[in-house]
Design goal:
Shape: elongated
Oligomer: single chain
Strand content: over 45%
Number of strands: 7
Radius of gyration: 18 Å
Helix content: 10-25%
Largest sheet: 6 strands, antiparallel, barrel
């Protein structure tokens, strides 16, 4: 009998690699890591079903600002935002998940300020800017165990 790992060898651990361990990140560490990357995934409800979209983000104080396409109805709903960096070869890296309330940015001066800082990377119009106000911030880092 073969395992799923046998069927998909790219998901197996590299030969002679050390088993990594996970370490919980503090809120400050999670925000620091979010500030180092510009791409993540927004999880929101569309037609009463969960939807996930890749977006770029800007850390603005203790909030996250994203471009949203016109079809994304992110008006005052609870969303999750996830960003990560995980090495495919070593399986080392980190993952941060932010859960909070999304609201459209409507103030013209705030829109202009955020647009000057946040550049869309996906093609097509990104007419709306959305701010996520975090309520729960969790993160884990996959690291080598301490040597004995």
């Amino acid at each position: 009998m073969t395992s799923r790992a046998d069927e998909y060898p790219r998901f197996t651990r590299p030969p002679n690699s050390t088993q990594q361990i996970s370490r919980d990140l503090s809120t400050a560490e999670a925000f620091d890591l979010l500030s180092r990357v510009g791409i993540g995934r927004i999880v929101y409800t569309r037609y009463a079903l969960p939807t996930i979209r890749p977006v770029n983000h800007l850390l603005d104080g203790e909030t996250i600002v994203i471009h949203a396409h016109r079809g994304a109805t992110l008006t005052r709903q609870v969303v999750a935002y996830e960003a990560d960096t995980i090495d495919q070869r070593t399986h080392r890296g980190w993952c941060v998940i932010v859960t909070g309330t999304a609201e459209p940015i409507t103030d013209p001066q705030e829109i202009a300020r955020c647009r000057s800082l946040l550049r869309p990377w996906l093609p097509g119009p990104r007419d709306h800017l959305v701010r996520i106000h975090p309520d729960i911030i969790t993160g884990i880092e996959f690291v080598d165990p301490d040597p004995v």
